[in-house]
Amino acid sequence: MAPEPVNVNEFKELARQALPKMYFDYYAGGAEDENTLRENIEAYQRIRLRPRVLVDVSRIDMSTTVLGYKISAPIMIAPTAYHQLAHPEGEVATARAAASCDTIMVLSYMSNCAVEEVASSCNAVRFYQLYVNKRRDVSAQLVQRAERNGFKAIVWTVDAPRLGRREADIRNKMVAPQLKNFEGLMSAEVHTLRGDDGSKLEAFARKTFDDSLCWEDLKWLRSITNLPILIKGVLTHEDARKAVEAGVHGIVVSNHGARQLDHTPATISVLEEVVQAVGGKVPVIVDGGIRRGTDVFKALALGAQAVLIGRPVIYGLAAMGQRGVKSVVEMLKNELELTMALSGCPTLEHITRSHAKMASEPVN
Ligand code: FNR
């Protein structure tokens, strides 16, 4: 029997062993030369910590709120597609694990399990991620089903008018699995997918994602739901300002786990620019390359309210189902707790910009 992993990175190898190559490559891969994929990880490693000593850290409180919902630590589950390719229980297992860790899961628009199934599997706080379909009625129905089923916010992903060029999927001729949410809604589109060559996912996205979306469309989204809207995929201060002016309730700094446009910066290196532009008006969340509690701490020091975890959650699911997802989140929580203790930060409010030093900053 393989030894129990002692850190989140070790789940990746277990997932590789558990999964068919096509699915592992789909989860692990990034766009084109995967420059941003590497950079998302390496940029964290260039940031140094500046711990403070002789602070009472006998009690550490990691709890926080996101949009008013209390969570045990600022570590949430990112929306990622197709959890049943990793484990037969799919998103239901992930949602139960999130609930048991007292955190929020963002359910992907491309989930295998239906929103109703996920909603009835546990009574934790959940957000719903949206891609806007060329057929707006399909997206509107999904958003309204999520709202009816108790999801608390919409995470509007805006960095995918088309899918990025993921060459592993092209090579493997990645299939597009059936999605329960779309049964009866979109069968014609799915059945007419061409694609003996290349990635069927790419074909699916090209056929169904609305690539004409623009800022104006936030009005449409607001007209179909009363839920708060977070915008996911912002990488510049220009767009952060626009998003706040347009009235979003939160911003997710994300490059989609480096799966869309290669050569975008690591998210951690643009976080501060976004935080400054937003000026505290709405919460800023970040994802991409977070694999350690120290990474979470660095993101918080640079102004994030919370982080989202993508691939490690899927690797945990592939390796051990619900227990694996819980283990991934708990490991990151434990590491964050230790980092806070060793940095002199008994609460999240104690974590400030002075606790992190970017490679470009002078030694003071
Ligand atoms: C994603 N991501 C994503 N984002 C989204 O808004 N909707 C989606 O359906 C998906 N699907 C998806 C599938 C897979 C396999 C991956 C790896 C990622 C992006 C995701 O929400 C998040 O931004 C990144 O995964 C964060 O980076 P890390 O933690 O994977 O490095």
UniProtKB/TrEMBL annotation:
GO biological process: defense response to bacterium; hydrogen peroxide biosynthetic process
Domain of life, per lineage: Eukaryota
Residue ranges constituting the FMN hydroxy acid dehydrogenase domain according to the UniProt record: 1-361
Gene Ontology terms for molecular function: (S)-2-hydroxy-acid oxidase activity; FMN binding
Keywords attached to this entry: Flavoprotein, FMN, Oxidoreductase, Peroxisome
Compartments it resides in: Peroxisome
Enzyme class per UniProt: oxidoreductase
Family from the record: Belongs to the FMN-dependent alpha-hydroxy acid dehydrogenase family.
Protein name, entry field: (S)-2-hydroxy-acid oxidase
Residues included from the entire protein: 1 to 364 of 721
